[in-house]
Amino acid sequence: MLTLLVVVASTRPGRVGASVGRWITSAAERHGAFRVTVGDLAAVNLPLLDEPAHPRLHQYTHDHTKTWSGLVSAADAFVFVVPEYNYFAPATLVNAIDYLYHEWHYKPAAFVSYGGASGGVRSVQAIKPLLTSVSVMPLSTAVAIPFVSQHLNDARDFAATEQHEQAATAMLDELRRWAAALVSMREPTSRR
Predict the structure, then answer these.
(1) Assigned domain for 125 exists
(2) CA 32 to chain centre
(3) Are strands 77-83 and 143-145 parallel, antiparallel or unpaired?
(4) How many other C-beta atoms can be found within 10 angstroms of the C-beta atom of residue 117?
(5) What is the pLDDT of residues 48-98, one digit of tens each?
(6) In which element (H, E) is residue 18 found?
(7) Is 101:133 a contact under the CB 8 Å cutoff?
(8) What is the DSSP string of 20-83?
(9) Does the residue 95 lie in any domain?
């Protein structure tokens, strides 16, 4: 079974991302195509890039990097749960991507974005070039949640609409196709 890593990008106090992350994690588990794990960047708690060696060397000295590397390495695909901060992706996500190199290669990524009127789509568009730089295939099939605060109940849990659920299913279907297709690109090449 393919492994999906749901990356919750926001680390702000009072964030909505954890709630949206719980929803998409549950949706992915119900979908059934993936073994689902979560990489909540608030819990991973990566400081601003503090490894002395370049990530491509894979010579990690800090436990937080080794933990993050293990989560990303084990994944066959990613769903990034991203807010939009000042019309851009959160710095925590940029930092988390920059921490690693080889672990990202030849895996697809989908997005659940949220925010105000734009639903966080500018954040998604901003992060795609960085992901392609580490050989991640960003997909266009996504879930965008405009005016996310209107979908929070009194406990601040995200209450998905039927449209959100349908978009999530379409996104996960597409992600499964790409994840299965890219497995062979990560296999070691045979020597001739």
Answers:
(1) yes
(2) 18
(3) unpaired
(4) 6
(5) 999 999 999 999 999 999 999 999 999 999 999 999 999 999 999 999 999
(6) helix 17-31
(7) no
(8) HHHHHHHHHHHH-SEEEEEEEHHHH-PPSS--SS-GGG----SHHHHHHHHHHHH-SEEEEEEE
(9) yes
Q: What are phi and psi of 106, to 5 degrees?
A: 55, 45
Q: Which domain holds residue 28?
A: 2-186
**DSSP conformation class of 2:** E
> What is the per-residue DSSP string for 119-146?
TTHHHHHHHHHHHHHTTEEE-S--EEET
Angle value at C-alpha 165, between 160 and 170, nearest 5 degrees = 150
Q: How far apart are CA 93 and CA 129, in angstroms?
A: 13
Reported pTM:
0.95
Q: Would 192 be classed as within a structural domain?
A: no
CA–CA separation, 178 and 138 (whole Å) = 10
Nearest Cα neighbor of 40 from 84, 8, 6 is 8
Is 44 a member of any domain?
yes
Q: Give Cβ neighbours of residue 22 (< 8 Å, ≥ 6 apart).
A: 157, 158
Domain of 142: which CATH number? 3.40.50.360
Asked if residue 190 has pLDDT above 50, the reply is no
Number of domains in the chain: 1
How far apart are alpha carbons 185 and 192 in whole angstroms? 17
Query: Whole-angstrom Cα distance, residue 158 to residue 160?
Result: 6
